[in-house]
User: Which sequence fits this backbone?
């Protein structure tokens, strides 16, 4: 026979209410079996209902609490109503309003943010058909995610698809010629999803012209104010002759470290924000510091040496550094244009442009993994100066040279040595390792089915940077914190030594105030000296008068 309750005869809780187990009986059962029976009973009461999600243990506790708080008369007669009131209170807020307010779940909130990505504008369906026939700058994010997934790299399919839709929305708003999902940089509060784009010709130039006009206007106002200030400050003490080192200008948009434009957002569905161009000073300073990102572009970067900008500038500098060191492609996929001829000698960096090779024949996957010479860098390296193409900061235009010829003949700076970096399309085999660690690690996505394996490369210098190659398809991506690997702990730069005190001497030593007796003695001595000088003058006058009389 089936026993009473949820317990079977062979279970320890069976027979809890049978004779001999009642607390009112003289016979006391074994304490261990009784404790086990109590634990099983409590576990049964804590089972949640598949319909409402509640459990009987909490429900009975809430009912007893309500009865003890309210202490109604004849509680046993209204116990059913009390049970209904307790259940009803679970689905209502304490601060009730005219309308029932349902609690917003996190999944529902996330779905609302991504809802705009799935909505189509009026007439958008016809435009999509035209884009399918022609070329579109929208990258196939899902295809790239599939190849990286073979090696266990990438995001979830849902997030990848949301990023796919977010890039589509970005392309519909901005005049973009090429677009690529660059990667994802992690932050302490929020993350950054990064898109790498290139504008159509002429679109970016308009923005730069506006910036130049603003700068020229500010310079003109400064010159007018300077003339007025010169008249007012003629009597001021001399100023320091120290001249700070010249500011190295940033590279023009579309060249060097500013070849691409980057847009970021914290989550798919949030608005895209364009990052400002990077300057050489920001890249040089970013190499000396190591900061975690917060996820807020306007957050200050507190560091030493001080970083010239906020987190948006620091993020842009790190993107430039990562791109310069990890953007790679299979050898032979890109080639230099035949029209360029020999390498340019002016910038010292050689050729800075390339094109796709129409006759490219991919290497077998085994060769792509077996030798790093099968991969090349197609991103320009950044020099120590912070630019991809070296610039002499002391070289001036003809007009400036004519003005400063007379002033700075004696103060000519020493000639700087021109910096040169590795040329474009340099094989990865020439990359320097990190102590005993190679710069790159190559592996196959699978060793079981080699016919369909994908070649995967991982950067050891920038953890989180990956590249894949399968046939004529390849791509680069980054998932990480935006930090460069260092075998030793990061040691911030020490502040400069304290400036030495001015040498003390009698000419600057503070004199002791004289006493009253010393002042009186000094005054008496001064009067005596004046009296003696007057007597000498009188004697000289008398002598001169006597000499004049003798002459007469």
Assistant:
């Amino acid at each position: 026979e089936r026993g009473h309750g949820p317990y079977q005869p062979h279970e320890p809780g069976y027979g809890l209410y049978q004779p001999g187990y009642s607390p009112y009986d003289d016979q006391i059962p074994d304490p261990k079996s009784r404790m086990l029976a109590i634990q099983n009973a409590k576990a049964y009461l804590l089972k949640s209902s598949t319909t409402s999600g509640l459990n009987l243990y909490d429900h009975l506790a809430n009912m007893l609490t309500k009865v003890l708080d309210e202490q109604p008369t004849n509680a046993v007669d209204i116990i059913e109503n009390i049970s209904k009131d307790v259940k009803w209170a679970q689905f209502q807020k304490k601060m009730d309003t005219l309308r029932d307010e349902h609690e917003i779940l996190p999944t529902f909130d996330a779905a609302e943010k991504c809802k705009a990505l799935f909505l189509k504008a009026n007439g958008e369906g016809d435009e999509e058909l035209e884009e399918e026939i022609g070329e579109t700058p929208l990258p196939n994010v899902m295809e790239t995610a599939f190849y990286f997934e073979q090696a266990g790299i990438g995001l979830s399919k849902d997030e990848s698809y949301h990023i796919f839709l977010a890039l589509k929305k970005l392309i519909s708003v901005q005049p973009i010629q090429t677009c690529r999902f660059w990667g994802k940089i992690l932050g302490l509060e929020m993350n950054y999803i990064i898109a790498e784009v290139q504008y159509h010709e002429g679109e970016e130039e308009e923005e730069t012209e506006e910036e130049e006009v603003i700068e020229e206007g500010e310079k003109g106002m400064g010159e007018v104010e300077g003339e007025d200030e010169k008249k007012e400050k003629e009597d001021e003490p001399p100023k320091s002759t120290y001249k700070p080192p010249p500011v190295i200008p940033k590279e023009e948009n579309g060249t060097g470290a500013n070849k691409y434009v980057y847009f970021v957002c914290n989550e798919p569905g949030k608005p895209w924000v364009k990052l400002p161009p990077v300057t050489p000073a920001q890249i040089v300073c970013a190499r000396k510091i190591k900061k975690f990102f917060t996820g807020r572009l306007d957050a200050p970067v507190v560091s030493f040496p001080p970083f010239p900008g906020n987190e948006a500038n620091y993020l842009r500098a790190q993107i430039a550094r990562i791109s310069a060191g990890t953007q790679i492609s299979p050898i032979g996929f890109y080639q230099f244009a035949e029209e360029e001829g020999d390498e340019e000698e002016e910038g010292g960096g050689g050729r800075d442009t390339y094109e796709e090779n129409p006759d490219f024949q991919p290497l077998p996957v085994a060769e792509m993994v077996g030798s790093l010479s099968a991969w090349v860098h197609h991103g320009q390296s950044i020099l120590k100066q912070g630019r991809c193409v070296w610039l002499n900061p002391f070289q001036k235009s003809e007009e400036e040279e004519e003005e400063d010829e007379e002033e700075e003949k004696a103060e000519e700076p020493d000639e700087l040595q021109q910096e040169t970096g590795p040329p474009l399309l340099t094989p990865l085999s020439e990359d320097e390792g990190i102590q005993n660690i190679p710069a790159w690690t190559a592996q196959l996505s699978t060793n079981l089915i080699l016919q369909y394996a994908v070649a995967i490369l991982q950067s050891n210098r920038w953890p989180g940077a990956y590249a894949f190659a399968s046939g004529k398809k390849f791509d680069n991506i980054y998932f990480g914190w935006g930090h460069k690997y260092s075998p030793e702990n990061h040691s911030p730069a020490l502040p400069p030594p304290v400036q030495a005190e001015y040498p003390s001497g009698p000419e600057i030593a503070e004199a002791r105030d004289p006493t009253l007796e010393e002042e009186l003695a000094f005054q008496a001595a001064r009067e005596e000296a004046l009296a003696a000088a007057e007597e000498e003058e009188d004697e000289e006058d008398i002598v001169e008068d006597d000499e004049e009389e003798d002459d007469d």
In short: The first strand starts at residue 176 and ends at 185.
